Amino acid sequence: MVFGFGSSSRPPPNGNTTTTVDIRAAHVQKFLSHATFSRGTKQVPTDPSANLYETSFAPSQGADPYTLQIYLSPSFPSQPPIITLLKPAIARHAIINENMQCVRLNGLVNWGSGSAVSLVEVIEEIAQSLIQQPPTPVGGTPTKPPSYDTALETARRSSRSSSAENDMTHIPIPPVPSKFPDLEAMPESAITRLLNDDVARATYVENMACVKTIIELKASISDGNLEAAKLNLGREEEIGGLQAEARVMQVELKEEAAKFDDIVKEARGVLDGLSEREVLDLVTSAKMDAEEKSDDLSSSFQDGDLKIGDFTKNYMEMRQKYHERAAKIERMERQQRY
């Protein structure tokens, strides 16, 4: 199967009545109906309170497929999915931790931080990363996956530490062999030559399988860091633009706040020079003005000069002003009595 990506729409809530169950179902349905993943995806029998899926995809025509295990806990989508690389069973890659879980991903790091990332977008991001930089298979026996809570904490810890250049705690280093059969079977003359010839000794060490694995692992980490750096640099212009917009908005906010302060000062200045009786007379006049205007609107509507939509809008606004001013007058008169 040739791997191809299309635009994947996120599963947005359908109105105010959408529940967590609806959002969870939307995530799963979007994933199961995806053009690339639908044929190679199956649900694994498990606890009915959780969902476990396996999906396989090939990076190119005729190539060995990759297999991912997607675990959705009962609290999904409040908690992010746990996605494990099952095939190849033991491999090294920049986005994979020691439990073969995919962790160094923007979609998982930002899950629940306000972004509307969907399940299928996270899987697409994993697939793209594996295709662009294939994982390096390493011999060994896969261990039993940890519990969901342990896996979730491990994934978060690995994601938080992914930006540290020298942090290697999330990368499983292959163990140093306890025996070297090739050396043990080597004639004494050959061993003496290796001890006395720096070039021959260095060449022999570099061609050892365990050393080659370390070199490949180092190259994989370097490539992963380079890719992450390029992604960050690619967003530099976007972040700069957002910062510029924020600065403009700050200036505009200060200007509007200054205008508002001036209006408040002007209003206080007018009110400070008036007695309570004068203020009451002004509000009473404004109330009568609102009543007259509402009566004029009613007359115009009855004469056919106003459409019902314009009449309803303007009449309701004016009657609201009338009742607000009448309530203020009543409150001011009550305060004067007491």
Automatic annotation (TrEMBL):
Statement: the UniProt record of this protein carries the keyword Protein transport: yes
GO CC, any one term: ESCRT I complex
InterPro entries the UniProt entry points to: ESCRT_assembly_dom, Helix_hairpin_bin_sf, Mod_r, UBQ-conjugating_enzyme/RWD
Entry's Gene Ontology BP terms: protein targeting to membrane; protein targeting to vacuole; ubiquitin-dependent protein catabolic process via the multivesicular body sorting pathway
UniProt subcellular location: Endosome
Record carries keyword Protein transport: yes
Keywords for the protein's UniProt record, in alphabetical order: Endosome, Protein transport, Transport
Protein name per its UniProtKB record: VPS37 C-terminal domain-containing protein
Organism, scientific name: Triparma laevis f. longispina
